[in-house]
Every structure is written in C-alpha cells, then in structure tokens.
Amino acid sequence: MRTKTVTHVFAVLAVGIATTMCFDMLKQGQQVIAAPFESDSSLEGQLHCRAQRVMEMNALRKLRERANWFEAEISHEREYFRTAKLDSYTAGFLFAPYYTCPYTLEKSPSVREHFDGGKWMCGLQELRDGANISCKIFSFGSNYETSFEDGIDIKQCDVHIFDPTMASVKAGHSRSKLDEFKSNLPTNYHFHELGIGSPGQGHVHLDGEKFDAISLVDALKEYGGSYGVDFLKFDVEGFEFDVLEHAEWEGISVGVLLFEMHGHLIERVQSVPYTLMKFHEHLSRLEQAGFRIYSMEPVCSGCRAQFEVAAVHKDWHPIHKFANPCRQ
C-alpha cells in the first residue's frame, strides 16, 4: 500500500511539474503542443492521459453539482433556477466552463480583428503540425461569411459549408450571387445548399420560406470522414434549439463543437421562454454523449442571452481522432 501511495504521489508531482513547465513555456511565448504519442506506454503518454483522467473526474463533479441547483431543497431557489430565463445574470456563473482544452487553444478570429463570430479552437495547431493528417470541418450557417473557415487555413482539411438561404430573394440574395460565391471558394471548400434539420426532417421553414435540410447524422454519413468530423460549427440564428433538442449526439463522432446561442431568437422561434433549466437540459444531452465545455464567451454587450459555446469530446485527439490512446 505504501509503495502504491508513493507511486501515486510521484505521478501527481510529475503532472504538476509538467503543467508548470507548460505555463512557463506559455509565459515565454512558446507554443505547447500535445505530443502525437503512439500509445500511453511512454512516461509522456502516461502523464498526458493521467492529466485528462483527472480533468474528466473534476468535470463530472462539476456537472453533478450544476444539476443539483435545479433540485435545491429550498423551494424558492429551486423554482428560480427552473424558471429563470437564459438572460438572467446567474447564467454566466451557472454555465461557466469547467473543462480545459487538452491541446493548443487559439481563437479565430480575435475580437481585435472581428468583433462578432470568433471561435475558440481546440487542437487546431496539432492538426496543422501533423503530417498527412486527414481533417474534416462542418460549418452550418454562412450568409456569405467565411472568416471562420478561412482562419483554419489547413489545406488538407475538407471544409463543408451548409446554408440553404443564400439564393433567397426574400433574404436579399440571388442565384447568380450564390454561383459567384461558390466559384470563388478554395478547392478544399464544398458548399451545400442545405439547412440543419431534425432526424427524418427533410426541410426547414425560415421566415415563411421552405428550404431543404439534412440531419447531422445524415450529413456525417454522406460528407464526413471514416472517423467523423474534427470541427462542427453551427450559427443558425435561433434554430440551434432544434439541433440541441433533437440531434442524436451519441450516434455521431465530432471532435470539437462550436455554436452560438441566441436565447432571444429561440424565444421568438419557439414562442416560449428559454430558461436556465432548458439550456441545462440541452447541454446535458451533449455532455452525456462525451462533450465537455471549455469556453463560453459573450457576443456583445447588448446581445441578450447570446454567447459563443465551445466543447471538445473527451475521447477525441487531433491526430488519432477517436482512436485516442487516452480514451476513457
């Protein structure tokens, strides 16, 4: 027992030393890259995997406690957290990120460059540095804006953009405008005139118009890689409710999930208040499927119940995908 305890202490100390070294490198402006180890048998691999196991245990504790707020013994507290809307001041505390991206973290673009729409990317640098590493990006919602996709800047990445509205006359567009947009896309970009829909739903209705749609499961089957997708982004102006409510998260393989919440637009589309409890239920569906929230940021000072969310799947690795040696 004593030997086991001593071994445990040294392992914890080693993780602490490795973490301190990483922070020192960051202070010096160096990049800290997750090693593409082939197995978890090396000391480096063991330390990396142990750190991820500790993060996972801590995340589960935080998730259990978040759920407890909605079951509080004090009735008026329980009622508040079940009925308060997402624009409540408590939302920022209750849904604060509880996980650390285990790979390189970078934002594209920064608010210094483009105020709205920046995403915190997890593992992008490892994809850039990997030799001949396959890469798949899904981006739902474009409206002729490709700053997110352009910021990835990895030629071996297949980038799939989905948006059904970009030829809509009602939205101020035209077929010729869309054709010109598509003709100017890089060769590794692929455009699909499809919205994101619920399973079994072949279309969506937006502002009185009917558009073709595809579910996430079907999109991954048709356009994803053999392992799934590395990054999935959706910014669909209030229709994220249907995605969060109906997507079969446990049946798809996505490494990093990036989406923008629009609480006030959800209420307009759904005609019901969007509450803290409903958002908790939506995040819980993601978390049960293995996603962990590592970033949540506001969109702007006056954007009510609107923020950027970023989550990484606990079993994904930028190099090994879902054959992650640390898979739990």
Distance between the termini: 25 Å
Number of helices: 11
- Label the overall shape: globular
Q: Which regions are unreliable across 5 or more consecutive residues at pLDDT < 50? A: 1-40
Sheet of most strands: 7 strands, mixed
Per the CATH scheme, the topology name is Rossmann fold
Global Rg: 21 Å
Spatial arrangement of strands, main beta sheet = 5-4-3-9-10-12-11
Please provide a written account of the structure.
- The protein is α/β, with parallel strands linked by helices and 328 residues long.
- It has a single domain, classed as Vaccinia Virus protein VP39 (Rossmann fold), CATH 3.40.50.150.
- It is 38% helix and 20% strand.
- The chain contains 11 helices and 12 strands.
- The protein has a 7-stranded mixed beta sheet with strand order 5-4-3-9-10-12-11. A 3-stranded mixed beta sheet has the order 6-8-7.
- Helix 7 links the parallel strand 4 and strand 5.
- Helix 1 packs across helix 2.
- The N terminus is likely disordered.
